[in-house]
Each structure stands twice: as structure tokens, then as C-alpha cells.
Design goal:
The complex is a heterodimer of chains A (110) and B (112). Helices cover 0% and strands 58% of the residues of chain A. Chain A is globular and about 40 Å long. Chain A is built from no helices and 11 strands. In chain B, strands 2, 4, 5, 6, 9, 10 and 11 form a 7-stranded mixed β-sheet that branches. Chain B has a 4-stranded antiparallel β-sheet with strand order 1-3-8-7, with no helix packed on it. The chains are: A mainly beta (110), B mainly beta (112).
């Protein structure tokens, strides 16, 4: 079993819909990252969080440490949100051990 | 600021050839990383450098070597390329090992 599992693997939505992508992990972590990879291949870090919730524009990330679960929400989705969203967990404490999920491919249709 | 830059963007090698992938960052970050990304798999760490003068193996280091040339530059060398090393390679950097990482645009490598 992978240490980091994302669901769904693929998600198609209509413009304006509210979107949720889930990430579950099986190890103790010091932080969780959400990344975005556009069709051109570039990777951008969206959030790093260790508790609670963070918001940036239309993106919201939450984490529940006890349940080992995080969600990424996109409000009022737009075709430009189409990308692969990747969850990664740092389970190494002050050392480096970042484990990545396989990603969720989001397609937002106009 | 250019952020994290990688050269080359594309490369085709024959089995057994060697090459070096270059990475540089202008954010004065301490930590740098090399990843590979293969279809159907998540990003996997090849090597990382927590700070200038140190390097450590990641999840898939076999067949690769690295050099942290200075604080700005971190290169990845394939001594004898194999078809299994066909992949997209990403370099990243962060202020410290526990911080948000900034990624380069990637190098698409094909080994025939």
C-alpha cells in the first residue's frame, strides 16, 4: 500500500463547480504539501500545512492530523484550473523524506 | 528572478552515453533536490542536498551521481545511460529542508 493515496485519480467538472480532491496517508507527518502540475509540465507549490486550514484565492486546503487526511477544495472552478494536483507528505521530521501521491487529473470544461 | 532553471530542456541519448543535467537557483536557498517523474508514478527523489557541501541519496539513486557545485548549482550526472532512465527530471530548491519547494521546468530525457 502506498504511503500517500489520492482520490479520485481523474475528475471532470463543469466550469463553476465546487471541487474536492482527497489525500490520505499512513505515516506520521510533520507537514503536507499540495502541488499543481500544468499540462506543460511545470510544477508549482500551492500549500504547505501541518494543521487546520489555509486559503489562497479560490483554493482551500484542510488537514486532519488525527484522521491522516487532507482535502484540496477549488471554489468556482475555471478551465484554467485544469491540471494534475499532487499531494506530498514530509514524514522525516527535521530530516528529508517527502513522499508523493500519484496525482489527480482535473479537467474543467467550459 | 529566474527562480530555478534547468538545462537542457530535452535530450536524447544512446545507451551507454553519459551526460550532466544542470540546475541553478537564484533564491539563495540552502536545499536542493533532483526528482524523476515517470508515467503512472509519483515524483521520486533521486538525490538531495540539504545544504552546500552535503549530498544524500534519495529513493532511486542507482545510476546517478550529483555535485553541489556551490550554493546556487546542483548537477545530476548519468555516467552510463540506460533506457530505464528515460524520464522527466525535475530540480527543486527550498530555503530549508522542511520548507516549500520551488521547481524547475524539467528536462525530458530519452535513452534509446
Amino acid at each position: 500500500k502506498n504511503e500517500v493515496e489520492q482520490s479520485p485519480q481523474n475528475l471532470t467538472a463543469q466550469e463553476g463547480e465546487f471541487i474536492t480532491i482527497n489525500c490520505s496517508y499512513s505515516v506520521g507527518i510533520s507537514a503536507l504539501h499540495w502541488l499543481q502540475q500544468h499540462p506543460g509540465g511545470g510544477i508549482v507549490s500551492l500549500f504547505m500545512l501541518s494543521s487546520g486550514k489555509k486559503k489562497h484565492g479560490r483554493l482551500i486546503a484542510t488537514i486532519n492530523i488525527q484522521e491522516k487526511h487532507s482535502s484540496l477544495h477549488i471554489t468556482a472552478s475555471h478551465p484554467r484550473d485544469s491540471a494534475v494536483y499532487i499531494c506530498a507528505v514530509n514524514s522525516g521530521g527535521s530530516n528529508y523524506k517527502l513522499t508523493f501521491g500519484k496525482g489527480t487529473l482535473l479537467t474543467v470544461n467550459p | 528572478n529566474a527562480g530555478v532553471t534547468q538545462t537542457p530542456k530535452f535530450q536524447v541519448l544512446k545507451t551507454g552515453q553519459s551526460m550532466t543535467l544542470q540546475c541553478a537557483q537564484d533564491m539563495n536557498h540552502n536545499s536542493m533536490y533532483w526528482y524523476r517523474q515517470d508515467p503512472g508514478m509519483g515524483l521520486r527523489l533521486i538525490y538531495y542536498s540539504a545544504s552546500e557541501g552535503t549530498t544524500d541519496k534519495g529513493e532511486v539513486p542507482n545510476g546517478y551521481n550529483v555535485s553541489r557545485l556551490n550554493k546556487r548549482e546542483f548537477s545530476l550526472r548519468l555516467e552510463s545511460a540506460a533506457p530505464s532512465q528515460t524520464s522527466v527530471y525535475f530540480c527543486a530548491s527550498s530555503e530549508m529542508i522542511t520548507d516549500t519547494q520551488y521547481f524547475g521546468p524539467g528536462t525530458r530525457l530519452t535513452v534509446l
